[in-house]
């Protein structure tokens, strides 16, 4: 049996003018800033006008640890949103924007798949409304102003060895991880070591996704630490006098983007911090706006629940005052078999024993999420090779964990295939009252917060930090940053820092290689294992297969 590609399905979509989509949420045409016919930004004036409305129910979609077999978290997020609308609920979807780096690298796009997609798929996965370009420009404006300040006399007495602000580009480019800047003589400045991160790892991205409005945005930008003096005194972006101009560059990017699903239901697509480097959630302003306009809001957290959901709950919810009413964990039979030791080439053959052997990865995520006080539903994202016995094995295992699993066929059937999942989610919200609480209190010491996540979420024996890192954390506490949450930067493929350690491993530690203070975003980043803040391209990048065909349509996006 052959199936249409995602891009074929998206191109055949019967899209409605974006003004009609806005009307479904009570947004008038005057409050939409159109980018063509099928996407628009929602004005800050309108957002301000709905703040006195009650909030709808927030549903978080997360997943098991990703495998090459595929899980379909975004696809399930979109499918559930469509399913809720199909059963008569007023629902909206909130997801992140796509980064060009993974799109041209290995991961592909970020608009869902099959008949559970957000459109326009091509624009969303390419330049969209220019938000990422604005973030890149604002970030690099600050970089230029730091070096310019040093060139014209360095009145702030910045220590060139302690400039911590790197540059960014929205592309996977390992050659830029570590560079030497300002070579070429006196007129080019003072040579120093520098480097690039990918745009989605920028603190500016994290700030845009956590800021409540433009005033909050500028304050947070000003709070960013960019360098230190020889006496270790921090130098802030406001000391460089860059925060105002950066805010100007981000003025339009701060407004959420409204688009639609294949079934013409509203979707907010805004912001996109990496989930294994940053906090991995769409913007607070998009989520909180959607909650004022819809009775149910379906959003997602990046990668597996050990990274994405943990950060959504401990960082985004803590900072924005959000509390999910239900969490949906996405799993596939194929991924269970891979966690159970089956090679990717052999996933098509029925293997109930392997499914059962791989289920402990799912079980650990269920248990972790329940510890936050939220009810859990498991969505089994259906693949055509799944057998009834394998699906039943997952359902039986989930039942043994005190939860319920629902087979969802949204990829193949759209909302007709996700209506049962939607019914179960609504039933769960109505029946099981959430009692959400974060994993650790603000007042816990930073090192203890890192250890708490390592032991309670990853189930490690502990986090390993040398004295230099412990001293750095203690210094930040003394400077008034001790109440910040921690953002763990770790491989997404495992509970450990070893991407090959599948399942639910025990008897390991989490090595913390480096810690970084994101004072503007409001969290401390703990870089664990070999994780990179600038990814590289794979041996055969997706870009090799992306092109325009003879009639000018894009081919190769997925």
From TrEMBL:
Binding-site positions, ATP: 67-74
Keywords: ATP-binding, Ligase, Nucleotide-binding, One-carbon metabolism
GO terms of biological process kind: tetrahydrofolate interconversion
InterPro entries the UniProt entry points to: Formate_THF_ligase (IPR000559), Formate_THF_ligase_CS (IPR020628), P-loop_NTPase (IPR027417)
Reaction catalysed by this enzyme: (6S)-5,6,7,8-tetrahydrofolate + formate + ATP = (6R)-10-formyltetrahydrofolate + ADP + phosphate
Pfam families linked: FTHFS
Pathway: One-carbon metabolism; tetrahydrofolate interconversion
MF GO annotations: ATP binding; formate-tetrahydrofolate ligase activity
Xref: Gene3D superfamilies: Domain 2, N(10)-formyltetrahydrofolate synthetase, Formyltetrahydrofolate synthetase, domain 3, P-loop containing nucleotide triphosphate hydrolases
PROSITE patterns: FTHFS_1 (PS00721), FTHFS_2 (PS00722)
EC number, as in UniProt: 6.3.4.3
NCBIfam families the UniProt entry points to: PRK13505.1 (NF010030)
Family affiliation: Belongs to the formate--tetrahydrofolate ligase family.
Name of the molecule in the record: Formate--tetrahydrofolate ligase
Organism (species): Sulfitobacter pontiacus
Name of encoding gene: fhs
